[in-house]
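Protein modeling request. Please complete all fields; requests missing the sequence field cannot be processed.
Requester role: graduate student
Desired output: 3D structure, token encoding
Chains: 1
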Amino acid sequence: MTVHTTHIPANIIGRATPSTTIWVDPHSTIRKSTTGPLRPERRAGSPTCHSRRSPHRRAGGVVIQVVPYRCPMLEGGQVVIISGPPGSGKTTVADAIVSGCELGVHLESDVFYRSIRSGFVAPHLPDAHHQNTAVMDVVTDAAAAYAEAGYAVVWDGVVGPWFLDRVARRLAARRLPLRYLVVRPDREVALDRVRKRDGVTETSGAEIMYGQFAALGEFESHVVESNRPIADVIGACRAALTGDSLMVSSDAWIDDRWPISVKAVLGWDDRFVVLRNRRDEWELPGGRLDATDAGPEETLRREINEELGLDAVVGPMIDSWIYEVEGRRVLILTYECEADRPPEFDHSDEHTDVGLHTIAELEAEVIPSGYLRSIRRVGRR
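Delivered output (381 residues):
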């Protein structure tokens, strides 16, 4: 029997057909059939191959055998972004790179964009900035979670330098290394690939995105030209990943968004309503100011109703202070409020108990000093 041997990237193996062009990959081996789809066989220690009964498959009189390669330069706990314009070959490159890792994840930005079922905006449009930022944050956090679990993460998507600092800072906050690689063919090569791949003639969106990668400034040294056969591109990318030239460093991202919590000082006959939280401390009724709230008063009326079942009238603000809790700094605003006293009190599932106490009683309890100060100010009136 005649055996023909060639080398192809692992991502091509699973979807090749007799009419598929098989590109050469010097790091993995398959003995190729001239008929029928090519399917990789599972080998001991190989997470990249599909399971079959035999390590060989007879098709058209030719034996098929897969020997996956290993990618020693990508160890677990790191993130590699492989980016570029549409038609650059970044998905094929990313799949080939990650399939050789002992523990590897191929993370595609496009999957996260396709998850947006309502309100989707084409990413190349100016109105898509908010959407694109959200997707970048979500993919970054997903990549970080995989990397922290010990996987080498290869992120494939249109990630331009304009988002790179944001991504790098979020990963730096979790002490995860980042490499950035751009595959970029000539403009007409990229657009021709898009036309053939998608079966379209209109490529204005792809043209805009290509223009965004045409001149990358300080990141030009991160570019691998991808006009050539894909096997050569994969080889060049692997070579680029062996050193530290693609590393991106940045200061760690700090969450400087300040939650605002509005609280009510509410009481009758020198006794004030407090709720016991799950940290086993007393606190004033109230909650976080939502982005859609018209103002603190609206928030406070809603929270008092949800937590105590009371309809309150919100009066003047009493105090403001910063509470450091569970590693975060929260701005607390306290207001004097009034409501009809109920015959008995109840509380929501957010708290474990409700109490009606004097200032003297609260001074002997566990309660943040800022809340107690607000209660005292109302008690002196």
